[in-house]
Design brief:
Layout lengths: L1 H67 L14 H76 L1 H28 L1
Length: about 190
């Protein structure tokens, strides 16, 4: 009888460990999928950032082309046109338009760069946090696997029927204990 009680207690412990193991395995799977999603987001942001940097390099390399190409030059003044008239009618409006376009492009570029850097930082911190959580779950999973091995040893030693009956008794005791606590709390 004493041995049966010990077996029942061990069965309770093993049952709890099995439930914990199942829960941790589920949490680990969820964390891994979340980790994969965030890693993919991080990779996407990094690819977009590389694309922007390559475009920036392309523009920097081709600036000289835009500076020297005749289509980007101001036309020569018409005969008998004064410098003031040329400046007011052709040069000033063209320069103002170009300044507005360049200003808009630069503002958009810097805003996108800030957004991408912020997204990259958020994704990196999330990946790091998930990696840490995953590490802790993996350690707990190793411990629970050892408990499962101990349970298998116990079943082998006592026999499957004895161990299963002890576990069932332990579950029934747990449920009864839980119901008693619940009924006491409802009475209060």
């Amino acid at each position: 009888e004493k041995r049966a009680e010990e077996v029942a207690e061990l069965g309770e412990i093993i049952s709890e460990r099995k439930d914990e193991l199942r829960s941790i395995v589920e949490k680990t799977a969820a964390q891994q999928s979340e980790h994969e999603i965030l890693t993919e987001k991080l990779n996407k942001v990094q690819r977009r950032l590389k694309l922007i940097k390559s475009k920036e390099k392309f523009v920097a390399k081709n600036v000289r082309h835009y500076d020297d190409a005749p289509e980007f030059q101001l036309p020569l003044p018409k005969p008998m046109m004064s410098a003031k008239a040329y400046y007011e009618r052709i040069a000033a409006p063209l320069v103002a338009t170009l300044k507005d376009v360049i200003r808009g492009i630069l503002l958009e570029f810097f805003e996108k760069t800030k957004e991408l850097k912020a997204a990259l930082e958020r994704a990196s911190s999330q990946v790091q946090a998930l990696t840490q959580r995953l590490s802790s779950y993996e350690a707990e999973l190793i411990m629970l696997r050892e408990t499962k091995k101990d349970y298998q040893r116990l079943r082998g030693f006592l026999g499957e029927n004895v161990a299963d009956k002890a576990i069932e008794k332990a579950k029934i005791r747990e449920q009864e204990s839980y119901l008693k606590k619940e009924s006491v709390e409802q009475i209060k």
